[in-house]
Amino acid sequence: MAHDDSAARASHNPIISDSGQVPAGKLLEDPSAMHDGGAPPAAAPGVWTPLATPTFRMLWMIWMTANICMWMNDVAAAWLMTSLTTSPVLVALVQSASTMPVMLLALPSGALADILDRRRYFIVTQFWVAAVALLLCLAVLSGQLTPYLLLALVFANGIGLAMRWPVFSALIPELVPKHHLPFAMALNGVAMNASRIIGPLVAGALIASLGSAWVFVLNAVLSIVSGFVLLRWKRQQPANPLGRERLGSAMRVGLQFIQESPRMHAVLLRTVCYFLQAAAIMALLPLTAQRLDHGTASSGSAGTFTLLLASMGAGAILGAMLLPRIRQMLSGERTVLAGVAAQSLATLTVAFAPHIAVAVPGMMLSGLALLATANTLGVAAQMALPNWVRARGMSIYQMSIMGSTAIGAAIWGKVASLGSVQISMAVAAVSGLTALLIVQRLNPDRDIEEDLSPSRAFTPPTALTPEAGRVVVTIEYLIDPARTGAFRDLMQLSRRSRLRQGALSWSLLHSMSQPERFVEQITDESWTEHLRRFERVTTADVALRDRKLSFHKGKEPPVVQRYFTDAL
Question: What is Dmax (Cα atoms) for the chain?
Answer without folding.
Answer: 86
